[in-house]
Amino acid sequence: MKVLIAYRSRYGVTASCARTLAARISSETVVRDLRGPDRQSPQSFDVVLIGGSIYGGRIQREIPAFCDRERETLLSRKVGLFICCFYTGERAEAELQEAFPPWLTAHAFARAILGGELSLSRLSMLDRILVRSLVHPARDISLIRADAIEELAARVNALQPG
Q1: Which domains does the chain have, with CATH numbers?
Q2: pLDDT tier at 68, thresholds 50, 70, 90
């Protein structure tokens, strides 16, 4: 079984989560940033995990573009979806629901909210001003959910034949 983790990351949090997830999947796994030059086609994979981070209530535009471009292939594969965001509960579920096309959300075998992280030194000046005006963080914050990463990896590992 071959697994593709296709993601977009603005400040590296989703990239880090994607690499951590890949390390916990026992099948051959390829991790690809959808913005990079090597845009991996999902055609040669059995399982495709798609993820991104939420900024201003939206996922990066490369995510829905990838989903729409690869719709036929994705509908013929096992697909899992994940987001990185600071919200929990109903608000996080709503963010996850709105991040992906409805046809893909309905098709997905797994959906996960992996939490979020805020590193003030990594933010652009504009994002730093925005974050400080909304949240007033005094320090960096990490709310990455290792349990959610483990659970998603377990769901993928359970798909292995035998």
Answers
A1: 2-157 (3.40.50.360)
A2: very high
